[in-house]
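Q: Could you write out the predicted structure for this multi-component system? I'm mainly interested in how the pieces pack against one another.
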Amino acid sequence: MLLITCPWCGPRDEAEYHYGGQAHVPYPERPADLDDEQWAAYVFYRDNPKGPFAERWTHSTGCRRWFNVLRDTVSYQVLASYRLDAPRPELPQAGGDR
Amino acid sequence: MAEPTDASPVAPRTSPLAHLADRMRAAAVTGARGVTLAERPFLTMVNLRLDLASEAADRVAKTLGTPLPRECGHTTAAGPYTVVWLGPDEWLVLSEEPVDTVELRQALAEDPGSVVDVSANRTTLELSGPVARQVLEKGCRLDLHPRVFGPGRAVSTTVGPVPVLLRQLDDAPTYRLLPRSSFADYLARWLIDAMSEYRGPEVP
């Protein structure tokens, strides 16, 4: 079970949240100009890194706000959580072989 | 052909837990390990949404007679009103008496936001007694210890699988749980079951 810190409500149990996929995927600036392949890339293609991954979560049974979480996909450790209008925080260089 | 009904158009309203009132009364435990459960039906709840940085926030606070709480878990109170923090731009005004939403909407004026009476959305369960906290801790993962949670605190969380607004009133301790009306039946039965343990002697 993860303990995730909501930027508004503080640390809460994972069961209070819902997952929302990869963060920082901007809507295309000129959607009308996209061909099918580019649309497919925008809609369906996501990163799948081994290590820190920025993803969206929503605090559904709390304040119902969306926010971003940096989570290590290897250890499941929640490294940081930040509001949608905040930039992705820089992480101190993690040791070990990733 | 439509079934004839006996109910007149002005039939008294029925609370979501009226059918469990006797069960809840019978589930009460007395003594040092005492705990009671009851419904407090038909309280007024008004959902309030606005930008805290706008002037509307000041006008609404003036109308309510109390500033809006700014942090998760905090509540403010004035007269019959208790204002509970639901989100950075969302509050719930609880009241034992009817709330004049027209007055609040006038205070909001042309600023973006909303004032909606949502009294029928939730019902109120009151859990009180020396072991009330132990009963809640069976299904609530939040830290309810007095050093963290006390009278005047209110948070949205889950009790068992049911999302509730949990509010502590006093040091008895007395808690008020506000589940959505459709989940109230399940939550009341869940609490009755959780309370039954304290009827017997403590298992060392």
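A: Regarding packing and overall arrangement: Residues 44-120 of chain B form a domain with the Alpha-Beta Plaits fold (CATH 3.30.70.1520).
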